[in-house]
Amino acid sequence: MRTMFRSLLLISSLFIFAPGLHAAQPSEDTESSHISIVPDIIHINAFYKGTDVAISADLPIDCDGAVVKIQGEDERITLKRKAKVYIFWLNVDDVTVSNAPDIYILNSTAAPESISAIEARRSLLLGYDALMEHIDFQGKNALSGSEFSEFIKLKEHNGSYQQNATAQLLPSPDKERNSFNAILPIPPAMPSGNHQVLLYYFRDRTLMGRSSATLRVEKVGLPNYLYSLAFDHPAFYGVFACVIAMAAGITMGLILGSRKRRKK
Amino acid sequence: MREDHVNPYLFLPIAGASVPMALLLGLGLMVGFLLGLFGVGGGFLLTPLLMMIGIPPTVAAASDANQIVAASTSGTLAHWRLGNVDFKMGLLLVAGGVAGGTLGVQLIKILREAGNADFVIKITYIIMLSIIGSYMFQESLRNLKPGWLSKKKERIAKTSTFATINKMLPLKIHFDKSGVTLSMLTVFLLGLLVGVLAAIMGVGGGFIMVPVMVYILRMPMHVVVGTSLFQVLFTCINVTFMQSYYNHTVDLTLAVLLLIGSTIGAQIGARISTYLKADQLKIILASIVLLVMISMAFDLLMHPDILLSYKGAH
Protein backbone atom coordinates (compact mmCIF):
# COMPACT_ATOMS: atom_id res chain seq x y z
CA MET A 1 0.00 0.00 0.00
CA ARG A 2 2.76 2.39 1.01
CA THR A 3 4.83 1.40 -2.01
CA MET A 4 1.86 1.94 -4.29
CA PHE A 5 1.26 5.36 -2.73
CA ARG A 6 4.93 6.37 -3.16
CA SER A 7 4.86 5.20 -6.77
CA LEU A 8 1.79 7.23 -7.43
CA LEU A 9 3.41 10.26 -5.78
CA LEU A 10 6.56 9.85 -7.88
CA ILE A 11 4.61 9.47 -11.11
CA SER A 12 2.46 12.52 -10.26
CA SER A 13 5.52 14.65 -9.54
CA LEU A 14 7.05 13.62 -12.85
CA PHE A 15 3.97 14.87 -14.61
CA ILE A 16 3.94 18.11 -12.67
CA PHE A 17 7.60 19.04 -12.86
CA ALA A 18 9.02 17.33 -15.94
CA PRO A 19 9.17 19.65 -18.94
CA GLY A 20 7.98 18.49 -22.32
CA LEU A 21 5.44 16.04 -20.89
CA HIS A 22 2.70 18.74 -20.93
CA ALA A 23 0.52 19.45 -23.91
CA ALA A 24 2.27 22.19 -25.95
CA GLN A 25 2.01 25.51 -24.10
CA PRO A 26 3.14 28.83 -25.53
CA SER A 27 6.45 29.81 -24.08
CA GLU A 28 7.23 33.42 -23.41
CA ASP A 29 10.91 33.00 -22.83
CA THR A 30 12.15 31.34 -26.00
CA GLU A 31 15.24 32.93 -27.43
CA SER A 32 13.70 33.18 -30.89
CA SER A 33 10.71 35.22 -29.78
CA HIS A 34 12.36 38.52 -28.87
CA ILE A 35 10.36 41.27 -30.54
CA SER A 36 11.85 44.56 -31.63
CA ILE A 37 9.76 47.67 -32.32
CA VAL A 38 11.11 50.82 -33.95
CA PRO A 39 10.32 53.40 -32.74
CA ASP A 40 9.22 52.23 -29.31
CA ILE A 41 8.25 55.73 -28.18
CA ILE A 42 6.05 57.99 -30.32
CA HIS A 43 5.98 61.68 -29.46
CA ILE A 44 2.86 63.43 -30.70
CA ASN A 45 3.83 67.04 -31.28
CA ALA A 46 2.01 69.86 -33.08
CA PHE A 47 3.03 68.58 -36.53
CA TYR A 48 2.43 64.88 -35.99
CA LYS A 49 0.52 63.14 -38.76
CA GLY A 50 0.70 59.50 -37.81
CA THR A 51 3.67 57.20 -38.17
CA ASP A 52 4.63 53.61 -38.98
CA VAL A 53 6.10 51.27 -36.39
CA ALA A 54 8.40 48.54 -37.71
CA ILE A 55 8.12 45.20 -35.92
CA SER A 56 10.76 42.51 -36.28
CA ALA A 57 11.47 39.23 -34.58
CA ASP A 58 13.42 36.02 -35.07
CA LEU A 59 11.02 33.10 -35.03
CA PRO A 60 11.62 29.31 -35.14
CA ILE A 61 12.39 27.94 -38.59
CA ASP A 62 9.37 25.64 -38.53
CA CYS A 63 6.93 28.44 -37.83
CA ASP A 64 4.65 28.96 -40.85
CA GLY A 65 2.57 32.00 -39.86
CA ALA A 66 2.62 34.93 -37.47
CA VAL A 67 0.30 37.72 -36.36
CA VAL A 68 1.19 40.97 -34.63
CA LYS A 69 -1.35 43.34 -33.14
CA ILE A 70 -1.91 46.33 -30.92
CA GLN A 71 -5.20 46.12 -29.08
CA GLY A 72 -6.43 48.94 -26.88
CA GLU A 73 -8.71 48.95 -23.88
CA ASP A 74 -12.29 47.76 -24.29
CA GLU A 75 -14.72 50.66 -24.28
CA ARG A 76 -18.45 51.16 -24.25
CA ILE A 77 -19.78 53.77 -26.70
CA THR A 78 -23.19 54.81 -27.96
CA LEU A 79 -23.57 55.42 -31.67
CA LYS A 80 -26.42 56.64 -33.85
CA ARG A 81 -27.89 54.20 -36.36
CA LYS A 82 -29.31 55.24 -39.72
CA ALA A 83 -32.14 53.45 -41.41
CA LYS A 84 -34.53 54.20 -44.25
CA VAL A 85 -37.80 55.83 -43.12
CA TYR A 86 -40.11 56.05 -46.14
CA ILE A 87 -37.67 57.56 -48.66
CA PHE A 88 -35.34 59.25 -46.16
CA TRP A 89 -32.17 57.97 -44.52
CA LEU A 90 -32.38 59.16 -40.92
CA ASN A 91 -30.85 58.50 -37.52
CA VAL A 92 -33.55 56.27 -36.04
CA ASP A 93 -32.11 55.16 -32.73
CA ASP A 94 -28.98 54.58 -30.66
CA VAL A 95 -26.83 51.47 -30.63
CA THR A 96 -24.64 50.74 -27.60
CA VAL A 97 -21.39 49.00 -28.44
CA SER A 98 -19.65 47.16 -25.58
CA ASN A 99 -16.36 45.27 -25.33
CA ALA A 100 -14.96 47.06 -28.36
CA PRO A 101 -11.25 47.92 -28.20
CA ASP A 102 -10.60 51.59 -28.80
CA ILE A 103 -7.67 50.63 -31.05
CA TYR A 104 -7.20 47.43 -33.06
CA ILE A 105 -4.28 47.29 -35.47
CA LEU A 106 -3.30 43.90 -36.82
CA ASN A 107 -0.85 42.67 -39.42
CA SER A 108 -0.21 39.06 -40.32
CA THR A 109 1.72 36.96 -42.81
CA ALA A 110 -1.57 35.70 -44.28
CA ALA A 111 -5.27 35.97 -43.41
CA PRO A 112 -5.66 35.06 -39.70
CA GLU A 113 -8.09 32.24 -40.52
CA SER A 114 -5.43 30.51 -42.62
CA ILE A 115 -2.71 30.86 -39.96
CA SER A 116 -4.54 29.78 -36.84
CA ALA A 117 -7.44 27.60 -35.74
CA ILE A 118 -10.73 29.18 -34.73
CA GLU A 119 -10.24 28.47 -31.03
CA ALA A 120 -6.93 30.34 -30.92
CA ARG A 121 -8.38 33.22 -32.93
CA ARG A 122 -11.31 33.51 -30.53
CA SER A 123 -9.24 33.38 -27.37
CA LEU A 124 -6.52 35.70 -28.69
CA LEU A 125 -8.90 37.95 -30.70
CA LEU A 126 -7.06 37.58 -33.96
CA GLY A 127 -8.94 39.06 -36.87
CA TYR A 128 -12.26 40.77 -37.39
CA ASP A 129 -14.23 37.50 -37.33
CA ALA A 130 -12.99 36.81 -33.80
CA LEU A 131 -13.66 40.42 -32.83
CA MET A 132 -17.24 40.10 -34.06
CA GLU A 133 -17.93 37.48 -31.40
CA HIS A 134 -16.30 39.61 -28.70
CA ILE A 135 -18.11 42.89 -29.38
CA ASP A 136 -21.68 43.28 -28.22
CA PHE A 137 -24.33 45.50 -29.85
CA GLN A 138 -27.53 46.56 -28.12
CA GLY A 139 -30.30 48.77 -29.41
CA LYS A 140 -33.78 49.88 -28.34
CA ASN A 141 -35.16 48.59 -31.63
CA ALA A 142 -34.36 45.37 -33.45
CA LEU A 143 -30.86 45.32 -34.94
CA SER A 144 -30.36 44.73 -38.64
CA GLY A 145 -27.42 42.35 -38.29
CA SER A 146 -25.09 44.65 -40.20
CA GLU A 147 -24.01 46.64 -37.15
CA PHE A 148 -20.59 44.96 -36.87
CA SER A 149 -19.60 45.62 -40.48
CA GLU A 150 -20.80 49.23 -40.19
CA PHE A 151 -18.86 49.60 -36.92
CA ILE A 152 -15.70 48.34 -38.62
CA LYS A 153 -16.20 50.85 -41.46
CA LEU A 154 -16.61 53.65 -38.93
CA LYS A 155 -13.48 52.67 -37.03
CA GLU A 156 -11.42 52.14 -40.18
CA HIS A 157 -12.43 55.59 -41.37
CA ASN A 158 -10.13 57.27 -38.82
CA GLY A 159 -7.54 54.49 -38.77
CA SER A 160 -8.46 53.17 -35.31
CA TYR A 161 -9.07 49.69 -36.72
CA GLN A 162 -6.80 48.16 -39.35
CA GLN A 163 -6.33 44.60 -40.50
CA ASN A 164 -3.60 43.86 -43.04
CA ALA A 165 -1.86 40.74 -44.28
CA THR A 166 1.40 42.29 -45.45
CA ALA A 167 3.77 40.94 -42.80
CA GLN A 168 6.70 38.86 -44.04
CA LEU A 169 8.19 35.64 -42.77
CA LEU A 170 11.46 34.87 -44.53
CA PRO A 171 14.04 32.21 -43.71
CA SER A 172 17.44 33.51 -42.63
CA PRO A 173 20.41 32.78 -44.95
CA ASP A 174 21.63 30.06 -42.62
CA LYS A 175 18.12 28.52 -42.55
CA GLU A 176 18.26 28.43 -38.74
CA ARG A 177 15.54 30.98 -38.13
CA ASN A 178 12.58 32.74 -39.74
CA SER A 179 12.84 36.49 -39.86
CA PHE A 180 9.51 38.20 -39.17
CA ASN A 181 8.92 41.77 -40.32
CA ALA A 182 5.76 43.84 -40.23
CA ILE A 183 4.65 47.46 -40.35
CA LEU A 184 1.90 48.73 -38.06
CA PRO A 185 0.55 52.14 -39.15
CA ILE A 186 -0.18 54.20 -36.05
CA PRO A 187 -3.04 56.70 -36.64
CA PRO A 188 -3.17 60.26 -35.26
CA ALA A 189 -6.12 59.15 -33.13
CA MET A 190 -3.92 56.74 -31.14
CA PRO A 191 -4.59 57.26 -27.41
CA SER A 192 -1.66 58.28 -25.22
CA GLY A 193 -0.13 55.74 -22.86
CA ASN A 194 1.57 52.35 -22.96
CA HIS A 195 0.30 49.92 -25.58
CA GLN A 196 1.17 46.24 -25.71
CA VAL A 197 2.42 45.01 -29.09
CA LEU A 198 1.58 41.29 -29.15
CA LEU A 199 3.14 38.76 -31.51
CA TYR A 200 1.79 35.22 -31.98
CA TYR A 201 3.42 32.61 -34.16
CA PHE A 202 1.95 29.37 -35.41
CA ARG A 203 2.77 26.05 -37.00
CA ASP A 204 0.07 24.01 -38.67
CA ARG A 205 -2.52 26.41 -37.22
CA THR A 206 -1.36 25.65 -33.67
CA LEU A 207 0.06 28.35 -31.44
CA MET A 208 3.81 27.86 -30.99
CA GLY A 209 4.66 30.90 -28.97
CA ARG A 210 4.00 34.52 -28.21
CA SER A 211 5.96 37.62 -27.40
CA SER A 212 5.21 41.17 -26.43
CA ALA A 213 6.79 44.58 -26.22
CA THR A 214 5.61 47.99 -25.11
CA LEU A 215 4.95 50.91 -27.40
CA ARG A 216 4.67 54.22 -25.60
CA VAL A 217 2.64 57.06 -27.11
CA GLU A 218 2.77 60.46 -25.51
CA LYS A 219 1.60 63.94 -26.39
CA VAL A 220 4.31 66.56 -26.01
CA GLY A 221 4.51 70.31 -26.30
CA LEU A 222 1.46 72.32 -27.31
CA PRO A 223 -0.92 69.35 -27.93
CA ASN A 224 -0.19 68.05 -24.44
CA TYR A 225 -0.71 71.46 -22.85
CA LEU A 226 -3.99 72.17 -24.67
CA TYR A 227 -5.35 68.66 -24.07
CA SER A 228 -4.68 68.92 -20.32
CA LEU A 229 -6.17 72.40 -20.18
CA ALA A 230 -9.34 71.34 -22.03
CA PHE A 231 -10.07 68.43 -19.71
CA ASP A 232 -8.63 69.63 -16.39
CA HIS A 233 -9.77 73.27 -16.54
CA PRO A 234 -12.73 73.35 -18.97
CA ALA A 235 -14.24 76.65 -17.78
CA PHE A 236 -10.93 78.49 -18.09
CA TYR A 237 -10.32 76.80 -21.45
CA GLY A 238 -13.73 77.95 -22.72
CA VAL A 239 -13.14 81.56 -21.68
CA PHE A 240 -9.58 81.39 -23.03
CA ALA A 241 -10.87 80.12 -26.40
CA CYS A 242 -13.36 83.00 -26.65
CA VAL A 243 -10.78 85.62 -25.61
CA ILE A 244 -8.22 84.30 -28.12
CA ALA A 245 -10.84 84.36 -30.86
CA MET A 246 -12.02 87.89 -30.08
CA ALA A 247 -8.45 89.18 -29.75
CA ALA A 248 -7.58 87.67 -33.13
CA GLY A 249 -10.64 89.24 -34.68
CA ILE A 250 -9.91 92.68 -33.21
CA THR A 251 -6.22 92.49 -34.13
CA MET A 252 -6.99 91.51 -37.71
CA GLY A 253 -9.62 94.23 -37.90
CA LEU A 254 -7.20 96.86 -36.60
CA ILE A 255 -4.36 95.75 -38.90
CA LEU A 256 -6.47 95.65 -42.03
CA GLY A 257 -8.34 98.78 -41.00
CA SER A 258 -5.15 100.78 -40.48
CA ARG A 259 -3.79 99.60 -43.87
CA LYS A 260 -6.90 100.92 -45.53
CA ARG A 261 -6.54 104.30 -43.83
CA ARG A 262 -2.86 104.53 -44.92
CA LYS A 263 -3.82 103.78 -48.54
CA LYS A 264 -6.30 106.68 -48.48
CA MET B 1 7.54 58.59 -43.02
CA ARG B 2 8.42 61.34 -45.45
CA GLU B 3 8.53 64.78 -43.86
CA ASP B 4 6.07 67.01 -45.70
CA HIS B 5 7.70 70.45 -45.64
CA VAL B 6 5.74 71.67 -48.63
CA ASN B 7 2.37 71.03 -47.07
CA PRO B 8 2.83 70.67 -43.31
CA TYR B 9 0.24 68.89 -41.26
CA LEU B 10 -1.13 70.05 -37.94
CA PHE B 11 -2.10 67.66 -35.16
CA LEU B 12 -5.41 68.58 -33.51
CA PRO B 13 -5.28 67.25 -29.92
CA ILE B 14 -9.00 67.31 -29.13
CA ALA B 15 -10.09 66.07 -32.56
CA GLY B 16 -7.35 63.40 -32.57
CA ALA B 17 -6.70 64.05 -36.26
CA SER B 18 -3.94 65.46 -38.46
CA VAL B 19 -4.94 67.83 -41.25
CA PRO B 20 -2.97 69.88 -43.82
CA MET B 21 -2.54 73.44 -42.52
CA ALA B 22 -3.20 74.97 -45.94
CA LEU B 23 -6.56 73.24 -46.12
CA LEU B 24 -7.67 74.65 -42.77
CA LEU B 25 -6.52 78.15 -43.70
CA GLY B 26 -8.40 77.94 -47.00
CA LEU B 27 -11.62 76.76 -45.37
CA GLY B 28 -11.40 79.55 -42.81
CA LEU B 29 -10.84 82.14 -45.55
CA MET B 30 -13.88 80.97 -47.48
CA VAL B 31 -16.19 80.95 -44.47
CA GLY B 32 -14.92 84.31 -43.21
CA PHE B 33 -15.54 85.81 -46.62
CA LEU B 34 -19.18 84.66 -46.54
CA LEU B 35 -19.53 86.01 -43.02
CA GLY B 36 -18.19 89.43 -43.98
CA LEU B 37 -20.25 89.54 -47.15
CA PHE B 38 -23.62 88.31 -45.89
CA GLY B 39 -23.45 88.28 -42.08
CA VAL B 40 -24.14 84.55 -42.19
CA GLY B 41 -22.00 82.45 -39.84
CA GLY B 42 -21.04 79.78 -42.33
CA GLY B 43 -21.61 77.08 -39.72
CA PHE B 44 -24.03 75.31 -42.01
CA LEU B 45 -21.21 75.09 -44.56
CA LEU B 46 -18.08 74.67 -42.45
CA THR B 47 -19.22 71.96 -40.04
CA PRO B 48 -20.04 69.44 -42.82
CA LEU B 49 -16.77 70.35 -44.60
CA LEU B 50 -14.74 69.72 -41.43
CA MET B 51 -16.46 66.37 -40.98
CA MET B 52 -15.54 65.43 -44.53
CA ILE B 53 -11.83 65.92 -43.79
CA GLY B 54 -11.96 63.64 -40.76
CA ILE B 55 -12.83 65.89 -37.82
CA PRO B 56 -15.32 64.21 -35.43
CA PRO B 57 -18.76 65.88 -35.72
CA THR B 58 -18.99 67.21 -32.16
CA VAL B 59 -15.50 68.74 -32.39
CA ALA B 60 -16.28 70.20 -35.83
CA ALA B 61 -19.42 71.95 -34.59
CA ALA B 62 -17.85 73.26 -31.37
CA SER B 63 -14.59 74.46 -32.94
CA ASP B 64 -16.53 76.04 -35.79
CA ALA B 65 -18.44 78.13 -33.24
CA ASN B 66 -15.11 79.24 -31.75
CA GLN B 67 -13.71 80.41 -35.06
CA ILE B 68 -16.96 82.22 -35.87
CA VAL B 69 -16.35 84.29 -32.70
CA ALA B 70 -13.15 85.54 -34.32
CA ALA B 71 -14.60 86.11 -37.77
CA SER B 72 -17.73 87.82 -36.45
CA THR B 73 -15.62 90.05 -34.15
CA SER B 74 -13.53 91.04 -37.16
CA GLY B 75 -16.61 91.49 -39.35
CA THR B 76 -18.53 93.45 -36.70
CA LEU B 77 -15.56 95.78 -36.27
CA ALA B 78 -15.32 96.30 -40.04
CA HIS B 79 -19.05 96.99 -40.35
CA TRP B 80 -19.05 99.23 -37.29
CA ARG B 81 -16.42 101.41 -38.98
CA LEU B 82 -18.68 101.55 -42.02
CA GLY B 83 -21.62 102.56 -39.80
CA ASN B 84 -23.51 99.33 -40.42
CA VAL B 85 -24.12 97.96 -36.92
CA ASP B 86 -27.36 98.70 -35.07
CA PHE B 87 -26.28 97.76 -31.54
CA LYS B 88 -29.71 98.50 -30.03
CA MET B 89 -31.43 96.14 -32.43
CA GLY B 90 -28.66 93.59 -32.09
CA LEU B 91 -28.84 93.44 -28.29
CA LEU B 92 -32.62 92.93 -28.32
CA LEU B 93 -32.30 90.15 -30.90
CA VAL B 94 -29.55 88.52 -28.82
CA ALA B 95 -31.74 88.60 -25.71
CA GLY B 96 -34.56 86.93 -27.64
CA GLY B 97 -32.15 84.49 -29.25
CA VAL B 98 -30.72 83.31 -25.92
CA ALA B 99 -34.22 82.75 -24.52
CA GLY B 100 -35.26 81.00 -27.73
CA GLY B 101 -32.17 78.83 -27.71
CA THR B 102 -32.97 77.62 -24.20
CA LEU B 103 -36.53 76.80 -25.26
CA GLY B 104 -35.28 75.08 -28.39
CA VAL B 105 -32.97 72.79 -26.40
CA GLN B 106 -35.92 71.67 -24.25
CA LEU B 107 -37.98 71.07 -27.38
CA ILE B 108 -35.20 68.87 -28.77
CA LYS B 109 -35.22 66.84 -25.55
CA ILE B 110 -38.97 66.23 -25.91
CA LEU B 111 -38.58 65.27 -29.56
CA ARG B 112 -35.73 62.88 -28.75
CA GLU B 113 -37.80 61.14 -26.13
CA ALA B 114 -40.60 60.83 -28.67
CA GLY B 115 -38.05 59.21 -31.02
CA ASN B 116 -38.37 61.40 -34.06
CA ALA B 117 -36.03 64.31 -33.34
CA ASP B 118 -33.77 63.61 -36.28
CA PHE B 119 -36.63 63.61 -38.79
CA VAL B 120 -38.03 66.90 -37.43
CA ILE B 121 -34.60 68.55 -37.43
CA LYS B 122 -33.74 67.51 -40.98
CA ILE B 123 -37.13 68.43 -42.42
CA THR B 124 -37.11 71.77 -40.58
CA TYR B 125 -33.72 72.50 -42.08
CA ILE B 126 -34.83 71.68 -45.61
CA ILE B 127 -38.13 73.55 -45.34
CA MET B 128 -36.49 76.65 -43.82
CA LEU B 129 -33.69 76.69 -46.36
CA SER B 130 -36.04 76.25 -49.31
CA ILE B 131 -38.50 78.94 -48.12
CA ILE B 132 -35.77 81.45 -47.32
CA GLY B 133 -33.67 80.68 -50.37
CA SER B 134 -36.48 80.70 -52.92
CA TYR B 135 -38.18 83.79 -51.48
CA MET B 136 -34.94 85.76 -51.45
CA PHE B 137 -34.01 84.59 -54.93
CA GLN B 138 -37.38 85.41 -56.40
CA GLU B 139 -37.66 88.79 -54.74
CA SER B 140 -34.14 89.88 -55.63
CA LEU B 141 -34.52 88.72 -59.23
CA ARG B 142 -37.74 90.70 -59.53
CA ASN B 143 -35.99 93.80 -58.17
CA LEU B 144 -33.08 93.46 -60.57
CA LYS B 145 -35.31 93.14 -63.62
CA PRO B 146 -36.20 96.31 -65.61
CA GLY B 147 -39.45 97.92 -64.57
CA TRP B 148 -39.23 96.75 -61.01
CA LEU B 149 -39.56 100.29 -59.69
CA SER B 150 -43.30 100.57 -60.20
CA LYS B 151 -43.85 97.19 -58.57
CA LYS B 152 -41.69 98.25 -55.65
CA LYS B 153 -43.75 101.41 -55.12
CA GLU B 154 -46.88 99.31 -55.07
CA ARG B 155 -45.41 97.01 -52.44
CA ILE B 156 -44.43 99.90 -50.23
CA ALA B 157 -47.90 101.36 -50.46
CA LYS B 158 -49.49 98.19 -48.99
CA THR B 159 -49.37 97.83 -45.25
CA SER B 160 -48.13 94.37 -44.26
CA THR B 161 -49.77 92.24 -41.58
CA PHE B 162 -46.62 92.50 -39.57
CA ALA B 163 -46.74 96.32 -39.67
CA THR B 164 -50.36 96.23 -38.52
CA ILE B 165 -49.49 94.01 -35.56
CA ASN B 166 -46.45 96.13 -34.75
CA LYS B 167 -48.62 99.27 -34.57
CA MET B 168 -50.74 97.68 -31.84
CA LEU B 169 -47.85 96.63 -29.61
CA PRO B 170 -46.42 98.84 -26.85
CA LEU B 171 -42.80 99.79 -26.07
CA LYS B 172 -42.03 101.26 -29.47
CA ILE B 173 -38.57 102.68 -30.02
CA HIS B 174 -36.82 104.16 -33.01
CA PHE B 175 -33.72 102.34 -34.23
CA ASP B 176 -31.57 105.12 -35.71
CA LYS B 177 -29.10 103.02 -37.67
CA SER B 178 -31.82 100.87 -39.26
CA GLY B 179 -34.23 103.76 -39.76
CA VAL B 180 -37.21 101.76 -38.45
CA THR B 181 -39.59 102.18 -35.52
CA LEU B 182 -40.57 98.92 -33.94
CA SER B 183 -41.95 97.56 -30.71
CA MET B 184 -39.23 96.07 -28.50
CA LEU B 185 -41.55 93.08 -28.02
CA THR B 186 -41.60 92.47 -31.77
CA VAL B 187 -37.84 92.40 -31.98
CA PHE B 188 -37.52 90.22 -28.87
CA LEU B 189 -40.11 87.70 -30.10
CA LEU B 190 -38.49 87.46 -33.53
CA GLY B 191 -35.17 86.84 -31.80
CA LEU B 192 -36.88 84.15 -29.71
CA LEU B 193 -38.27 82.43 -32.82
CA VAL B 194 -34.88 82.48 -34.50
CA GLY B 195 -33.29 81.13 -31.30
CA VAL B 196 -35.70 78.19 -31.20
CA LEU B 197 -35.07 77.38 -34.88
CA ALA B 198 -31.32 77.78 -34.42
CA ALA B 199 -31.32 75.39 -31.45
CA ILE B 200 -33.35 72.81 -33.40
CA MET B 201 -31.09 73.07 -36.44
CA GLY B 202 -27.85 73.43 -34.48
CA VAL B 203 -26.71 76.62 -36.22
CA GLY B 204 -25.82 80.16 -35.14
CA GLY B 205 -29.00 81.53 -36.66
CA GLY B 206 -27.41 83.98 -39.10
CA PHE B 207 -29.01 82.56 -42.22
CA ILE B 208 -32.46 82.77 -40.57
CA MET B 209 -31.86 86.13 -38.93
CA VAL B 210 -30.72 87.89 -42.12
CA PRO B 211 -33.98 87.25 -44.05
CA VAL B 212 -36.00 88.11 -40.91
CA MET B 213 -34.23 91.45 -40.66
CA VAL B 214 -34.55 92.17 -44.38
CA TYR B 215 -38.14 91.07 -45.03
CA ILE B 216 -39.91 91.40 -41.68
CA LEU B 217 -38.05 94.15 -39.87
CA ARG B 218 -37.42 95.99 -43.18
CA MET B 219 -33.87 96.94 -42.28
CA PRO B 220 -31.45 98.09 -45.01
CA MET B 221 -29.31 95.18 -46.24
CA HIS B 222 -25.97 96.69 -45.29
CA VAL B 223 -27.12 97.32 -41.71
CA VAL B 224 -28.55 93.79 -41.65
CA VAL B 225 -25.14 92.27 -42.34
CA GLY B 226 -23.36 94.19 -39.59
CA THR B 227 -26.13 93.68 -37.03
CA SER B 228 -26.39 89.97 -37.85
CA LEU B 229 -22.65 89.60 -37.27
CA PHE B 230 -23.07 91.25 -33.89
CA GLN B 231 -25.86 88.79 -32.98
CA VAL B 232 -23.89 85.78 -34.26
CA LEU B 233 -20.91 86.86 -32.14
CA PHE B 234 -22.86 86.51 -28.89
CA THR B 235 -24.50 83.24 -29.92
CA CYS B 236 -21.16 81.67 -30.75
CA ILE B 237 -19.47 82.91 -27.55
CA ASN B 238 -22.22 81.11 -25.65
CA VAL B 239 -21.88 77.92 -27.71
CA THR B 240 -18.06 77.92 -27.44
CA PHE B 241 -18.13 78.20 -23.68
CA MET B 242 -20.88 75.59 -23.23
CA GLN B 243 -19.19 73.09 -25.54
CA SER B 244 -15.84 73.57 -23.76
CA TYR B 245 -17.31 73.27 -20.31
CA TYR B 246 -19.79 70.43 -20.75
CA ASN B 247 -18.45 68.42 -23.69
CA HIS B 248 -14.70 69.29 -23.98
CA THR B 249 -15.07 69.45 -27.73
CA VAL B 250 -13.49 72.78 -28.65
CA ASP B 251 -10.16 72.20 -30.40
CA LEU B 252 -8.30 75.47 -30.01
CA THR B 253 -5.61 74.46 -32.53
CA LEU B 254 -8.27 73.85 -35.17
CA ALA B 255 -10.15 77.03 -34.26
CA VAL B 256 -7.00 79.20 -34.42
CA LEU B 257 -6.06 77.94 -37.89
CA LEU B 258 -9.60 78.52 -39.11
CA LEU B 259 -9.83 81.94 -37.53
CA ILE B 260 -6.59 83.16 -39.08
CA GLY B 261 -8.19 82.52 -42.46
CA SER B 262 -11.67 83.67 -41.48
CA THR B 263 -10.70 87.00 -39.92
CA ILE B 264 -8.92 87.94 -43.13
CA GLY B 265 -11.85 86.61 -45.18
CA ALA B 266 -14.38 88.57 -43.10
CA GLN B 267 -12.54 91.82 -43.70
CA ILE B 268 -12.40 91.15 -47.45
CA GLY B 269 -16.07 90.17 -47.49
CA ALA B 270 -17.10 93.29 -45.58
CA ARG B 271 -15.29 95.53 -48.07
CA ILE B 272 -16.65 93.75 -51.13
CA SER B 273 -20.19 94.02 -49.74
CA THR B 274 -19.99 97.82 -50.11
CA TYR B 275 -19.47 97.44 -53.88
CA LEU B 276 -22.48 95.23 -54.38
CA LYS B 277 -26.10 96.34 -54.46
CA ALA B 278 -28.37 94.96 -51.77
CA ASP B 279 -30.30 92.83 -54.27
CA GLN B 280 -27.08 91.44 -55.72
CA LEU B 281 -26.02 90.38 -52.22
CA LYS B 282 -29.39 88.81 -51.59
CA ILE B 283 -29.38 86.84 -54.82
CA ILE B 284 -25.92 85.41 -54.17
CA LEU B 285 -26.88 84.46 -50.62
CA ALA B 286 -30.16 82.95 -51.85
CA SER B 287 -28.23 80.84 -54.36
CA ILE B 288 -25.92 79.53 -51.65
CA VAL B 289 -28.82 78.74 -49.34
CA LEU B 290 -30.62 76.84 -52.13
CA LEU B 291 -27.46 74.90 -52.99
CA VAL B 292 -27.06 73.86 -49.35
CA MET B 293 -30.72 72.82 -49.25
CA ILE B 294 -30.28 70.65 -52.35
CA SER B 295 -27.15 69.09 -50.87
CA MET B 296 -29.00 68.27 -47.62
CA ALA B 297 -31.97 66.81 -49.47
CA PHE B 298 -29.55 64.70 -51.52
CA ASP B 299 -27.90 63.41 -48.34
CA LEU B 300 -31.29 62.46 -46.93
CA LEU B 301 -32.29 60.51 -50.02
CA MET B 302 -29.02 58.72 -50.87
CA HIS B 303 -27.79 55.59 -49.10
CA PRO B 304 -25.06 56.75 -46.68
CA ASP B 305 -21.58 55.18 -46.82
CA ILE B 306 -21.65 54.22 -43.15
CA LEU B 307 -24.89 53.51 -41.27
CA LEU B 308 -23.42 54.13 -37.81
CA SER B 309 -22.15 57.50 -36.66
CA TYR B 310 -20.84 59.14 -33.53
CA LYS B 311 -23.26 61.24 -31.55
CA GLY B 312 -23.25 64.85 -32.69
CA ALA B 313 -23.18 63.91 -36.37
CA HIS B 314 -25.96 65.06 -38.64
**Radius of gyration from the alpha-carbon trace of chain A, in angstroms:** 27 Å
Low-confidence stretches of chain B: 148-158
Percent of residues in helices of chain B comes to: over 70%
Find the count of extended strands of chain A (DSSP E, 2+ residues). 13
Order of helices and strands of chain A: HEEEEEEEHHHEHEEEEEHH
Give me the side-by-side strand order of the main sheet of chain B. Answer: 1-2
- Mean pLDDT value of chain B: 79
Number of helices of chain A: 7
Distance between the termini of chain A: 117 Å
Give me the count of strands of chain B: 5
Cα end-to-end separation of chain B: 34 Å
Secondary structure class of chain A reads alpha+beta
Main structural class of chain B: mainly alpha
Q: Secondary-structure element order of chain B, as H and E?
A: EEHHHHHHHEEHHHHHE
3D shape of chain A: flat
The oligomerization state is: heterodimer
Q: How many helical stretches of chain B? A: 12
* Percent strand of chain A: 35-45%
- Shape descriptor of chain B reads globular
Brief summary:
The complex is a heterodimer of chains A (264) and B (314). Chain A is built from 7 helices and 13 strands.
Characterization of this structure:
The complex is a heterodimer of chains A (264) and B (314). Chain A is an alpha+beta fold and 264 residues long. Chain A is 33% helix and 39% strand. A six-stranded mixed beta sheet of chain A has the order 2-13-12-4-7-9. A four-stranded antiparallel beta sheet of chain A has the order 1-3-11-10, with no helix packed on it. In chain A, strands 5-6-8 form a three-stranded antiparallel beta sheet. In chain A, helix 3 (118-124) packs across helix 4 and helix 6 crosses helix 7. The longest helix of chain A is centred in the C-terminal third of the chain and has 30 residues, at 234-263. Chain A is flat. Mean pLDDT of chain A is 84; it is low at 11-32. With 314 residues, chain B is mainly alpha-helical. Chain B has helices spanning 21-38, 43-52, 57-81, 87-114, 117-144, 148-157, 161-168, 184-201, 206-216, 221-247, 252-273, 278-301, and strands at 9-12, 17-20, 172-175, 180-183, 308-310. In chain B, the strands form two sheets. In chain B, strands 1-2 form a two-stranded antiparallel ribbon. In chain B, helix 4 crosses helix 10 (221-247) and helix 5 packs antiparallel against helix 12. The longest helix of chain B has 28 residues, at 87-114. Chain B starts with 8 loop residues before the first strand and ends with a strand. In chain B, 50% of the residues are buried. The model of chain B is unreliable at 148-158 (pLDDT under 50). At the A-B interface, strand 5, strand 6, helix 5, helix 6 and helix 7 of A face strand 1, helix 3, helix 5, helix 10 and helix 11 of B.
